[in-house]
Write a structure and sequence with these properties.
Elements (H helix, E strand, L loop, with lengths): L18 E5 L2 E4 L4 E4 L2 H4 L8 H11 L12 H13 L4 E5 L2 H18 L7 E5 L8 H7 L2 H4 L9 E4 L4 H8 L4 E6 L13 H13 L3 E5 L24 E4 L10 E5 L1 H4 L15 H14 L4 H22 L4 E7 L2 E6 L4 H9 L2 E2 L1 E3 L3 E4 L7 H23 L1
Parallel strand pairs: 3-13, 5-6, 5-7, 7-8, 8-9
Antiparallel strand pairs: 1-2, 2-3, 4-10, 9-10, 11-12, 12-15, 14-15
Amino acid sequence: MTASLSPLLPVYSPPDLIFERGEGPYLFTKTGARYLDFISGIAVTALGHGHPHLVAALKAQADKLWHLSNMFLVEDQLRLAQRYVDATFADQVFFTNSGTEAIEGALKMARRYHFAKGAPERFVVLTFEGAFHGRSYGAVNAGGNQIYLEGFGPRLPGYRQLPFGDHAALEAAAAEPDVCAILIEPVQGEGGLREVPGVCLQGLRRLADAHDLLLIYDEVQCGAGRTGKLFAHQWTGGAEPDVMAVAKGVGGGFPMGAVLANLRGASGMARGVHGTTFGGNPLAMAVGNAVMDVMLAEGFFDSVNARANELAQGLAGLKDLYPDLVLEVRGKGLLRGLRLARDPKPVQAAARERGLLCGVAGQNTLRLAPPLLMEAAHVSAALGVIDAALAAETKAKAA
């Protein structure tokens, strides 16, 4: 082994930064340098870093019980599942460790639904260009992005990807006799922060009903309050799914996910057909309940939407200031993107040099997913840094 060889598998290329601690919307390095965190671990630390209620819940549970497996009932599982049922379309919940696992569970539900009805030939899931549903073998095939599929053997059968926004192609595909479900993100994350209009979600619901398909939402990134409601599709009446995969923000930084389903969506699942070792463990359930305590508190979403409006207005102003560089403001709530005319990574780097952390996504999009609990001053500070970063990129391009 050479001295320069990292013990880590080289699948990431992080910047030369080591963070030691976090506090609210900020991260701090060992040298004390402070960064405003507007990516939140890719929409994970939804309530910021070190939220006292979440920390207290985790510490209290750590002193009592860490793990049981699902051989035994976990009391907080029942409590958290009931809270999801009370707050959403769902009748039943299955807890996972991640969004990818939640997606895998949702896909299995869709195929089992038709299998249990005597139609195992209905196993094809319709997905959409630009989708990202996780990194497992099943999930990358569902997403269909060639970058994530290259080198991993032949494509799995059972996934049919459609152009984003092509209604005629969708209607034709939904009528095919081998189709079992439609899987979509109400707001795409990796695909470039594209929001699916509410009227389109309503159309998907009608289409699914007409052809006896399960409608599956991937709200792993756009859920957990990020759009200003508990889940993004709740902005639109008459657009509820049969199955929904959630993760990221629902654990507030602790690994946790879930599959939510109505009785129709869950009807094919029987004892022994699915399982998990760590999903729904006592530590995750304690934190998950603490997250719900905060998000369901009176006034929480009023504050989220106020900050979201400030951010949207500021980004629209930046688009006006840099019309040759900023093509479009995308997203919803506090899941926002600036689609740029070129690679966003230099702008991302320039923002980081000025103390702001943000991400990138498809279609040359600068991605912002700040903590839901922040003040107007944090939004203003971030907009100022993005302004400076865009100015620097404009100047560099002109030189």
